[in-house]
Design a protein that fits this description.
It contains seven helices and seven strands; from the N terminus they run H-H-H-E-H-E-H-E-E-H-E-H-E-E. The protein is of the alpha/beta class.
């Protein structure tokens, strides 16, 4: 996928594309120092990482407060921040990855991002409108870590791979929630899980 193809799908302005091109350059530079993404995915950055992250914007109105934990290389939260979809807290426990995230934020002059070097389960409640994470943990674990960071109106949005149905079944053993399932634009076997009214059933 090219930047122009990405722009045609997402309808973002050219300035956003220019920022993402710079983001890609930084990702490739820092990948040589640490394992930010699987090396096999570097040739597919615009689809595998950028579009896979950007597609979450189709499911949430702009201007919300996002909490993205296990932020890693910034997917999905930092891509959505570049798209100016709201205010973002990117939570990452590995300091070197936080250094990378802060470098991107600085270079792209993003004033809607806070990078937090911590484990999400150790943080005080963040009161997020939207909670997300990508390739971090099973759904039940994500719920356990993040439940206290949401409220009655919070939406939990998690991209999941081919095992998503099993993860939903396992999560329902400990949590009650309403679920919508959206198809992924980047992987026919993947789904985007849109969760509301999340609460514990036990424990």
């Amino acid at each position: 996928m090219t930047p122009d193809e990405f722009q045609a799908i997402t309808n973002v302005p050219r300035g956003t594309i220019d920022r993402l091109i710079r983001y890609e350059a930084l990702l490739r530079e820092w990948q040589g120092r640490m394992n930010l993404v699987a090396p096999s995915t570097l040739a597919e950055v615009w689809e595998r990482h950028f579009l896979d992250s950007a597609q979450l914007a189709f499911h949430v109105e702009a201007g919300r407060r996002w909490l993205d934990f296990g932020a890693g290389a910034g997917f999905p939260g930092l891509v959505l921040a570049v798209m100016e979809r709201g205010e973002f807290r990117l939570v990452e426990s590995i300091r070197k990855k936080c250094d990378f995230l802060r470098k991107v934020v600085e270079d792209l002059r993003l004033d809607n991002v806070e990078v937090v070097n911590a484990r999400v389960e150790a943080l005080p409640p963040m009161k997020a409108d939207v909670v997300t994470a990508r390739a971090t943990a099973p759904l039940a674990t994500l719920f356990d870590w993040s439940l206290r960071h949401g409220g009655a109106a919070t939406r939990w949005i998690f991209p999941k791979g081919r095992t998503w149905m099993l993860e939903v079944e396992q999560a329902r053993q400990a949590f009650r929630f309403e679920l919508e399932v959206a198809e992924s634009r980047t992987d026919p076997e993947a789904r985007i899980l849109l969760v509301t009214n999340l609460r514990r059933t036990r424990g």
